[in-house]
Design goal:
Layout lengths: L1 H24 L3 H25 L4 H23 L5 H22 L6 H20 L8 H19 L9 H26 L5 H21 L12
Length: 233
């Protein structure tokens, strides 16, 4: 039953995203906020299905589910924000908290290695270079974005580290790796949308498509496979 509901919620999320893109195109602000909230609710419900289905995975699925809830809160707060004020800061905090929780869950399956630290540093340095030398108007939020860059760098590296932990759990690992990579790409696109000198509609579309695809993968991973995950000791 949970498997069927998982597919239904994933499908409803995709339909909501399609509606979101349409509402944004026609500048329907209320409908945009509503559909954004619905799309986020459906990836949370997708995660709930996996959480309920595999009770022995909750050392992993519990932080992931909370991360999905934090992401939904961030979605709603950023949708309601109009002048990059307190709602924007709270939204970024919600996403940062989600990335920390995703990272905790990933580290429970794949231990942190020196290679992870090195690659995190590489990605973080590249992001900082982009922040400093790109054509952006940060309106005083540069320190917040630097901190966020550090968090997303580590989360992405830990998601991709599932390549070395994929034995016996291929589908699960592919969803985690894909979700982590798409999340980083969506945040890069969002950077240009929110702080770029020129805004174009397709940039926001690209951000939402990448972002909800990432969340769909990470939420779907909770229902993937029929094996018993083992926590790293």
């Amino acid at each position: 039953m949970e498997r069927v509901m998982y597919l239904i919620f994933e499908g409803l999320m995709l339909l909501s995203v399609a509606g979101l893109l349409t509402a944004f195109h026609f500048d329907l602000s209320t409908e945009t906020i509503l559909l954004k909230t619905l799309a986020s609710l459906f990836f949370v419900l997708t995660g709930v299905c996996g959480y309920v289905r595999y009770k022995d995975r909750r050392f992993f699925s519990c932080p992931v589910l909370i991360a999905l809830l934090c992401s939904m809160a961030g979605d709603v707060l950023l949708a309601l924000d109009r002048n990059q004020g307190i709602l924007f800061i709270l939204g970024v905090a919600g996403f940062a908290g989600a990335h920390v929780l995703f990272s905790i869950a990933f580290c429970r399956i794949c231990p942190v290695t020196k290679k992870d630290v090195a690659w995190t540093a590489v990605i973080f340095i590249e992001l900082v270079f982009l922040l400093f030398f790109g054509e952006f108007n940060f309106q005083g939020f540069l320190p917040v974005l630097i901190g966020y860059a550090a968090v997303i760098s580590f989360m992405t590296v830990k998601a991709l580290s599932f390549w070395s932990c994929r034995e016996g759990q291929k589908n699960f690992s592919v969803l985690i790796m894909t979700g982590g990579a798409l999340f980083l790409l969506s945040d890069l696109v969002l950077l240009f949308w929110m702080f770029g000198v020129q805004r174009q509609e397709w940039v926001q579309w690209a951000n939402w498509i990448l972002y909800y695809s990432a969340q769909g993968c990470l939420a779907g991973a909770l229902s993937a496979g029929h094996f018993r995950l083992t926590i790293f000791e």
